[in-house]
Write a structure and sequence with these properties.
82% helix
């Protein structure tokens, strides 16, 4: 998918949430978030002919907790949504690790190939990151205002995630598996092949 389209699909629902919150409050923002999430998932499907797992899981939780927020008129549920999503991701990765499976491999192997130790370490790091993000969300929504929580949700969570992902680049480079053709070219250049 075109990177700009991917960005729109990923960030569009968050932008809709923020704009609606600024104009009309948390209930309208929740409804806008739900509608924008469905639209983003549909666009993703139309362009790729599939729905990626992580956005799908997040979308299901948005529908469930957003629906509870609107039906019960209680903003607690939409505030819990990031906690639930982060905990689901952490538990899924930890369960994979416990079973000797690196679930990140199936999500990210299209982008890069790592050795088993790389996938293991990356999985452990992301597990702890998701746990930390769940704890951060809980701390903010339980102790600060709704305005502060919305600000963190819109302007904090994504940048923190991107920074954490960028911090994994050295690990990825160290544990990347080179293709045999790449090794041969390096060997012929007179440099070590592994």
């Amino acid at each position: 998918m075109n990177p700009f389209v991917r960005l729109f699909v990923d960030v569009g629902p968050l932008a809709a949430f923020f704009v609606a919150y600024a104009q009309a409050g948390i209930m309208t923002a929740t409804a806008a978030f739900m509608v924008a999430t469905v639209i983003a998932l549909a666009i993703g499907y139309l362009l790729e002919r599939r729905v990626a797992r992580m956005p799908l899981v997040s979308g299901v939780v948005v529908m469930l907790f957003g629906g509870l927020t609107l039906v019960l008129e209680d903003e607690t549920f939409i505030k819990l949504k990031p906690t639930i999503v982060y905990l689901l991701f952490a538990v899924t990765l930890a369960g994979g690790l416990a079973a000797g499976r690196y679930l990140l491999r199936s999500l990210l192997e299209v982008a890069f190939r790592l050795n088993d130790e790389g996938w293991r370490r990356l999985s452990v790091r992301w597990t702890f990151f998701f746990l930390a993000m769940a704890a951060l969300n809980e701390a903010v929504w339980r102790t600060l205002s709704t305005d502060a929580w919305v600000t963190l949700k819109v302007f904090g969570f994504l940048p923190l995630t991107l920074l954490f992902a960028a911090a994994q680049i050295p690990l990825i480079r160290r544990t990347m598996v080179r293709e045999p053709a790449e090794r041969t070219e390096i060997d012929e250049a007179g440099q070590p092949g592994s």
